[in-house]
UniProtKB/TrEMBL annotation:
Protein's UniProt name: Cobyric acid synthase
Membrane-spanning segments: none
Domain of life per record: Bacteria
PANTHER family from the UniProt entry: COBYRIC ACID SYNTHASE (PTHR21343:SF1), DETHIOBIOTIN SYNTHETASE (PTHR21343)
Gene Ontology biological-process annotations: cobalamin biosynthetic process
Pfam families registered for this protein in UniProt: CbiA, GATase_3
Purpose: Catalyzes amidations at positions B, D, E, and G on adenosylcobyrinic A,C-diamide. NH(2) groups are provided by glutamine, and one molecule of ATP is hydrogenolyzed for each amidation.
Every CobQ/CobB/MinD/ParA nucleotide binding domain range: 5-228
InterPro entries the UniProt entry points to: Class_I_gatase-like (IPR029062), CobQ/CobB/MinD/ParA_Nub-bd_dom (IPR002586), CobQ_GATase1 (IPR033949), CobQ_N (IPR047045), CobQ_synth (IPR004459), GATase_3 (IPR011698), P-loop_NTPase (IPR027417)
UniProt keyword annotation of Magnesium present: no
Domain CobB/CobQ-like glutamine amidotransferase: 253-449
Family: Belongs to the CobB/CobQ family. CobQ subfamily.
Active site: C332 (nucleophile), H443
Organism: Lacrimispora saccharolytica (strain ATCC 35040 / DSM 2544 / NRCC 2533 / WM1)
Amino acid sequence: MAKTIMIQGTMSNAGKSLIAAGLCRIFKQDGYRVAPFKSQNMALNSYITEEGLEMGRAQAVQAEAAGVKPEAAMNPILLKPTNDMGAQVIVNGISIGNMLAREYFAYKKTLVPEIERAFHKLSQEYDIIVIEGAGSPAEINLKQDDIVNMGMAKMADAPVLLVGDIDRGGVFAQLYGTVMLLEPDEKALIKGLIVNKFRGDKTILEPGLDMIEKQLSIPVAGVVPYMDVDLEDEDSLGNHLAGTARTDRTAVEIAVIRMPRISNFTDFQVFSSIPRVCLRYVDRVSDLGNPDMAILPGSKNTVEDLLWLRESGLEAAILKLKAREIPIFGICGGFQMLGESISDPFQVESETAVSSVRGMGLLPVRTVFGKEKTRTRVSGSCSSVGGIFEELSGMEVEGYEIHMGETTRSVPPLAYVMESQSGSRLAKMDGCQRGNVYGTYIHGFFDKEGIAMTIVKSLAEKKGISMELDDGFNYQEYKEEQYDRLAAQLRTSLDMDQIYGIMFRKQ
């Protein structure tokens, strides 16, 4: 059976996912076969496995850091919010429908056997399992029948490292308050404290570290600095969605429309790794400015987000960009919005009474939502592409599709791909293009080697600026370097001897 270590936090966005990813990388470097695990994840960023199963993208990133193939067992329950009161419930990679929060709270205890089976499967295949909690274990109104924090720690008999976020202030109160709200058997599972996102002189912090150790009788396992690594954020609390500052005219500027129900915003992170590219997320007309390209991302509620675009004035602003020949690129739900119409006769995504809405009319496509979700990995190549991005013609593409609905087109596709489905390979057409407007269903479209760089070069040429770009840039290699960088920073700030002792002796 695998050894375990669990990372819990004093609050959401304390840095659990990043520290878990870093530990996955460290254990891999030290020769162990390691897997990430999160019993229940709530996020709109998801990933499709080779088997066509859906899981949280954070665990896919952690698996990548561990050097292993992502599988649905690493995240047996995924909740994708549909509104403030409910979510789509995905179990072992397959949606079982939408539930209100109260419904799910009563239902979740029936999922314990699924969690146990998934964890047992991994524990037989790996040496170490790095388990991530969710939010805080001290939410006393939610502790009954907990399946993701201390409830999971007990299921896995896992020692816990508790992470506090000093950047948001009150880290000692966070740590102390969290521990003191736990039951005695839960407190006993916490074997180490971590202060995360520290800036400044550590010697000034040390008296507080000594005091918290004495107050709680739990050792501090490390003080982690605010790390300079470029890795995907788990959800919309991450810093990648915060920036709206505009750049100067010597850089390429890409604006991503931050819709209320934005999903898989990590599709565009590759652009932030390219020098002299400014990637901005905007949710107001006043912040849109004059970008060199605008992107419409995926959405969990395509119809409602399209109506929001219309009401906010951003649709009109995007149409004005198009009139000025500024390229527009839609991914998944964004691709659907760019079409002529979207129909949702079964209200599978939209909760409005509207069964059909007018699209933005920029692409000659029509979308109708059905009851079945498309979940598949695809690979292929771009067709004969026109417009500003004609250099994409023939380039290889790869990624995955997660969407409701089927889209019909009256023009050639953007790409010809093969999809993996039930062990077979099926040919299909994807997306389309008209003028400088492009659309695709493929998440990860920009990640394939050469795609993002070709787009940036075309935008720079149109803007009339000279950019020296690395033609050999490989985003996968870049991410590997970032994982190694994360591991190196954690090795210097965490007491790894202590952590190994906790895992192997469970002291």
